[in-house]
Fold:
Amino acid sequence: MKKIFFTALVGAMMISCSRDNDDTGSVTNDTSILPTKMTYSETNGKIVYTFSYNGNKLMKITDGFYDEIFTYTRDLITSINYTAGKSFVFNYDSNGNLISEKYVNYNTDKIKTSEYNITYTINGSTVTAQSVAKYYSQSDEVLSITSNITYTLDEKKRPIKKVVVYEKKDIINNITYRGTNTFTFQYPNHHGFSENIKGMDKLYYSYFAFGINRAEDLNYPVAYRVYLPFSYFKEEMYVTRLYPAGIPSPHGFATDEGKIEYVVNAHNYPTRIKYKFKSGSGEFESTTNDGYFTVEYNK
Structure:
């Protein structure tokens, strides 16, 4: 069952991260703790990702078939290149704030299939962004989505609210959909698995941090690696479809909701991560094929 939640690969006891009962006060954070292996397991098998470093800088993630190569400029991550045909480029201001991001995807024939160009403006705990996404077909047709995004950040500069106002256009530039998606996020008090990786904290509101393909299929987490340690999330979707003449059809509204359960180790870092989603019955249920992540560290 596919969940529409708005798509990358990139927190010992069982706890359901209920937003208020986690405690890190008695544990001193060792910032040299780094993830070395992450395994995604489901009923059909598993995928193992291995992390390589130079100090606290992440150099490469590999699953034995494809690699993700990280490039730094001083202490900032400036690009990520995937042998599978994807790439990210990041730019920052003089204070180290992310101000632009570009994502490009190519197919196996090295033909560009999609790209995102995002610019960010920072004003205290508020970040505004303009995003233009383009999807290319083999016949040189282009579909586009233009979005204005507003993030509200917590004291760690992680998004706690995200409002996306967007328009979709067809190949002849007619507006076909208008919509607003409102997201709320909550976090546990324990550590996130990636928080000690150099430069990762500068990407918390990036498209990359939310995970490749997250926008399309959150119910199948093997499609991405989410670097933000959510404990709870909710999306409220409001959309209007426009006929070719620009006449709006009846409005549509939907809500998606989920939580993440963690197992943490003695250092309060997650060793098991499992996503659950609220079903029609109102219960939180496991994802497709009962998938979950396990994480190993260097200490």
